[in-house]
Amino acid sequence: MSKAAKIVAAALSLTLLAATASAQVVGKTEDQIRFRQSAYTTMGWSVLRIKANVEGTYNKDQVIEAANVIQAIANSKMGTLYQPGSDKGKGWEPTRLKSEFFTDKEGVPKVAGPFIKAANEMGKAAASGDQLAVTEAYEALTKTCDGCHDKFKRK
Amino acid sequence: MSKAAKIVAAALSLTLLAATASAQVVGKTEDQIRFRQSAYTTMGWSVLRIKANVEGTYNKDQVIEAANVIQAIANSKMGTLYQPGSDKGKGWEPTRLKSEFFTDKEGVPKVAGPFIKAANEMGKAAASGDQLAVTEAYEALTKTCDGCHDKFKRK
Questions:
Q1: How many alpha carbons lie under 13 Å from residue A63 in its C-beta half-sphere?
Q2: Is the interface score ipTM higher than 0.95?
Q3: Residue A145 DSSP code
Q4: What pLDDT score was predicted for residue B59?
Q5: CA–CA separation, B56 vs B54, rounded Å?
Q6: Of A70, A51, A45, which is closest to residue B38 (Cα–Cα)?
Q7: Is the whole model's pTM more than 0.95, yes or no?
Q8: A-proximal residues of B, 53-92, CB under 8 Å
């Protein structure tokens, strides 16, 4: 490695360290895996609640409650639950996170960004009480779930 | 049973049925247990995040993110995940819900009400950014967690 490359590498390491320090990490690997499995399952419950409303009798309050849960979790920096090495281990069950999650530096924001955006749009649509807007936001949101699962979750 | 008692019983059944119909139930017993274990674990993660902030370096955004998760879940009608019979069964793990949950009709609102109130107070305190208010709200909130666990959760 050239001296310049070494300096760049050292600077990059420091930047990554700083990023890790400013993010908030709680729990060991097993806890992180259980926390993220729990958070996705809680969002899954909320998605099912919205689905039942858009496909059946619409109840504005139920949709708002469920959308608030999804939006709050989506904006809670779940990325901190993906510390290096957490593609192996067991939370409630063995993680299905693909190792590519830690190497595909461009791929992760490409799925995380649209998910957070869709969750925020879902919150807005829910608050409006407009069933058509909610249906569209629901479909857009579930596409972002699938987008990440296809890329980073083992079958 | 007298005729009057029968009429009262029938009216009560109808009221209970109506209450069940207006609440939103998704999933079978095993799903409900997994959803509630997930929701409490997600709140547990968020409580740990707030704890780290009140005991260490305070970061307003982290506390808001975590408090939003707790508040959204607390207000999401988790009671619908406690359908009769769900004191037995397995979600991620066997449920530890005591059967008294379904018979102690006065005890449940006595623990659920203060929990929801404390979660809402936590949200307000987080938004204010006042570390002392957050510390007090955090302590009040965790007391309501313990209050319910002592009464309705098996060791």
A1: 28
A2: no
A3: H
A4: 97
A5: 6
A6: A45
A7: no
A8: 53, 59, 62, 65-66, 68-69, 71-73, 75-77, 81, 92
Provide the 3-class DSSP secondary structure of residue B24.
Answer: coil
What tokens does B85 get? 């019979």
**Interface touch A42/B42, C-beta < 8 Å:** yes
Cβ(A7)–Cβ(A62) under 8 Å?
Answer: no
Across the range B30-46, mean pLDDT stands at 98
pLDDT tens string A69-123: 999 999 999 999 999 999 999 999 999 999 999 999 999 999 999 999 999 999 9
Euclidean distance between CA atoms A134 and A54, whole angstroms: 7
For CA atoms B128, B129, B130, B134, give the dihedral sign.
positive
Tell me whether residues A45 and B26 touch, CB distance under 8 A.
yes
**Those residues with Cβ within 8 angstroms of residue B137's Cβ, 6 or more apart along the chain or in another chain:** B118, B121, B122, B124, B125, B126
DSSP B132: H
